[in-house]
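Worked example 2:
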Amino acid sequence: MHRAGGGGGRVVILAGGLSHERDVSLRSGRRVAESLRSTGLEVDLHDLDADLLPFLDQVRPDVVWPLLHGASGEDGSVRDVLGLLGLDYVGTGPRECRAAWSKPVAKATVIGAGLRTPEYVTLPQSLFRELGAQPVLDAVLARLSLPLVVKPTHGGSALGVTLVRRADQLPRAMVDCFAYGDVALIEEAVEGTELAVSVVDTGDGPVALPPVEIVTEGPYDYDARYNPGRTEYFAPARIDPAVLDRVRDAAVTAHRSLGLRALSRTDVILEKDGTIQFLEVNVAPGMTETSLFPQAARAGGYDLASLYRAIALGPRHR
């Protein structure tokens, strides 16, 4: 069991913003702030607003922890601004964030590192206007096998994501996807055990926490993720230990190949034949009461306050 120590230091946690995941970010920020304060750190929780930069310039914290979800929190832009201010911050640098934030780029990167990912295509909304929606959808259905998953190429919390079991469901899925972004990723839906594998690095190299198995009544959508009742979690996952080690290795491979730092979460499907299919990676995992990262940490024997302190005071970017 890892215990929190004493000591000072000022941490500013960024939470909120204007993305569709604002509420999740605020809940994550409050949780981490409470934990860090319990270890003796001075913690400010600040929204992403017009007062932020003057505040940061005034207090000059020891480190900033961006716990923002959605575009500004995960596309590297906030980290670029923190770099311009000469402030240390927790987590992945801006260039690597942009690669991980783009699901197609992340997939191409991890494929190059030897991981598997479902067959997919990436299509912008403009292409449907230029070529006509039905011919493009017909081409998709001729190339990829049902069922399909349609999702925005950027974003999280399953917003705009649809499982398509029948061809006549695809047009509506595209409309729902384009409500959250201008580019859609359409991939074959693989069957198996859904696993979330968190990775943490407090200075000694990336270590995968115990994989969390996700069992959902219905789709693992926004409601299932953040409102208790519809989803059951098993941490560690109910899988042979040797297979769990392979899954953890895959998550570390994704973390390393994308150049991520401090923490990440990789989502995979473990097929019945043992194939591990990479779905996506998150550079700012949720830290709410139902989030996967804290569940994995507890399963690994970590005291959350101690772990968050180690992350906050560990390797940083500037």
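DSSP finds 13 helices and 15 strands in the chain. The chain has three domains: 10-91, 98-116+191-300, 120-188.
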